[in-house]
Amino acid sequence: MSARSIVAAGLMLFLFVAVVFLACSVAGCERPTHVRIQGAGTPVFILSGSGRLETLAVYTEQGLQKSNNPFDDSFAVWEIKPIVGDLHGTPVEDLESISYGVVPPGYVQVKPSSGSPVSLTEGQKYFYEVITTGAPWAEGYFEIRNSRAQPTTGPGVCFGRKDGKWIRVPCP
Length: 172
Prior knowledge:
Blueprint: H1 3-27, E1 34-38, E2 44-48, E3 52-60, H2 61-66, E4 76-82, H3 92-95, E5 97-99, E6 107-111, E7 125-133, E8 138-145, E9 148-152, E10 158-162, E11 165-169
Antiparallel strand pairs: 1-2, 2-5, 3-4, 3-7, 4-6, 7-8, 8-9, 10-11
């Protein structure tokens, strides 16, 4: 290979990388949703990523274990959704954070249908799900320990399909 062709190949590679970088900068490459848990007694969900918030839901660990399918929100103790529909949520980075029980502007509380959500109990595990459009969503566990919201781990609940019905399967 001649020196001229090596330089040409290097220039083409540089231009390709520059175009990809520019496209990501202009279009805003997808970044997964990330949640940090903070707060004294009441959890605060610190959000980042490139998606738009479709749903934030909190479940008791026991309620999650009773669910019949991966879309069963009947055991949610608190759930919010955008007023104008799932596809029109606010970018999570614009929301920055959401405190448990405090509905941000542009959202409506779905669970409970009225009133304040249940108070969270010291030592009990809770599961949260932050569903976003335009980026992978986030989920995890937290508990109230020493009057502070702390991230923790949980057993997880996984589902598969068999004969057209949802069934529980071992989590990977």
